[in-house]
Structure formats: C-alpha cells, structure tokens
Amino acid sequence: MARKKTIMKHDILNAAFKLAMRDGFYNFTARKIADELNCSTQPPYLEFDCMADLKHQSIKKIQAHLLKNVFSRHYDDDPMINLDLAYIHFVCEQPMLYRTLWIEDKQSIEEMKEFAHRLGMERLRQKPEAANLPEEKLHRILVGNWIIASGIANLMSTGYIKTTKTQMKEILNAQLADFIYNDRFNPANDVDSTDDWFTSDENLAI
C-alpha cells in the first residue's frame, strides 16, 4: 500500500514564501525549505519542476501579498502618488525584502520589473490628465516617476534624508506634472541622441 502523502504542494509553497519573506533568496534552497517543513528535500523536488519554478511561484505569492497588504494602503487620493508613498513606506519598513526583490536576485528583479510596470501603468491611467496619453509617453512618465520615488525611498531608508509626507507629495506631484506636460525623456527632445554618457568609453574609464 502506497504511503499517504502528508506534505502537499501548497505546504511547500507556503514554506518557501515564509523563507523568502524572512531571509530573502540568498539561501533559497531545497534544504532550507525542507527544514521549514521538517522533512527531506524530496517533496520540493517532487512537487515542482525545479527550484527556479518554486522561486517563480514564491515571487508570485509575494506579489499578491504586496498588492493586498502594501500597495492597497491609503496615503493619498491621487492613485499614482498613493502608489509612490506605499512603495516608499515599504522600502523603509522592509529594506531586506526590498533588496531581495528589486536589487540582489536576478530572477526576482526581472519579475518585479514586470510587476511594477503593470501596477504603475494601471495607476497612472487612473489620473485624468494621463488617461488618454499614448503608451510610449505613459512609459516615459512611469520611468521618471520610478527614478524619483526610488531616490526618495533609498535616501530615507538609509537615514540620509528625512522628509515629511507633505514634502514627499510636493516632490512627487511636481515631477509627475513636469513629465506629463513637458514630455521628458522623449527621444525627439534629445539635443544629441548619441551622447550616452553612462556607457561611453570615456566614462567607463573613470
């Protein structure tokens, strides 16, 4: 008679989610997940195609958690400003998880980039002044907004700056208005489109 399976796929995914939320993906191994479940490494390998598959599903579960518990919080009536403030608070409150998702793990970076883009475009389209803009311009606005929000978040999380909610809203509103009405990052506005200082040989040598 076959032994009854006691550790199910959802148990493994929950353990992987718990491990990633607590320790990040630095030690995201079958052994570590098995330790969470007090079992051998056999169940994770039986239930998932590979560790990359388990990590992918763990990231999806983390994204669902962020949507429900982080990005659903209310800070401001403007949908884009509200998203920015929720993101800044997340970076300051959970810096380890932020680094895990957006900075340190290659697979997570790619999946979180897509997640952030989808969520950002959804919120940006809710702004009346941006609702009917073409996709290309919305993307440019989102990139500019991401740069500013990430800058504030990183500087605040390290204690380099201290700002009030009102000050953050002033900065975020100003940059959104600037990108919407002045069409920043439009290649047509570049004086010299070949002047890519970041990848030039001269700057790489510095």
UniProtKB/TrEMBL annotation:
Under the heading SUPFAM superfamilies, the entry gives: Homeodomain-like, Tetracyclin repressor-like, C-terminal domain
Question: Source species, please?
Answer: Lapidilactobacillus concavus DSM 17758
Q: Protein name, please?
A: Transcriptional regulator
